[in-house]
Write a structure and sequence with these properties.
The chain has five helices and five strands; from the N terminus they run βααββββααα. It is α/β, with parallel strands linked by helices. Strands 1, 2, 3, 4 and 5 form a five-stranded mixed beta sheet that branches. Helix 1 packs across helix 2. The chain is globular, with a radius of gyration of 14 Å.
Length: 146
């Protein structure tokens, strides 16, 4: 199963807030047939954010949603031109790269933690982080996050 595809990667976005980013992810998911209902998916992102922020370090965030509205496990990527200062991160950096993990409730236990662990591990490499922040190649992003 391929968890990431070119249609789910949006580079050079001009979002202003975390809320806008989560809404955009929800809309992309519905547009690409990954989810059925953008509002339900957005609510799942918000519910997770209320538990604790998904902002990481170095301008990354890994929001994740588990919901019955999600048809298939998928990773979506948004790279924003400006930092999102309202997204709380571990190092107080502004979020510029959002890597979202969407998982249907039916296989949440087997898929969610595996995908989250894999993405987090990839972000431990300085080379991967630099490439994700700077490349305009969707193929490179797919290669790194697959």
């Amino acid at each position: 199963m391929n968890l990431i595809c070119e249609n789910g990667i949006y580079l050079n976005e001009n979002l202003k807030t975390k809320d806008e980013a989560l809404k955009k992810l929800s809309e992309i998911a519905v547009k690409e047939g990954i989810a059925q209902d953008a509002k339900i998916l957005y609510d799942a992102f918000i519910k997770r954010e209320k538990t604790s922020s998904t902002g990481m370090m170095d301008g990354f965030s890994i929001p994740h949603a588990k919901s019955d509205t999600i048809n298939e496990a998928q990773i979506l990527v948004i790279r924003n031109n400006n930092g999102l200062s309202d997204w709380e991160t571990l190092d107080d950096s502004e979020v510029k790269l959002v890597i979202a993990i969407l998982v249907p409730n039916e296989n949440v236990n087997e898929t969610h933690l595996k995908v989250l662990s894999n993405v987090s591990r990839k972000l431990m490499s300085d080379e991967n982080v630099k490439l994700l922040k700077n490349t305009d190649s969707k193929e490179d992003i797919i290669r790194i996050l697959s």
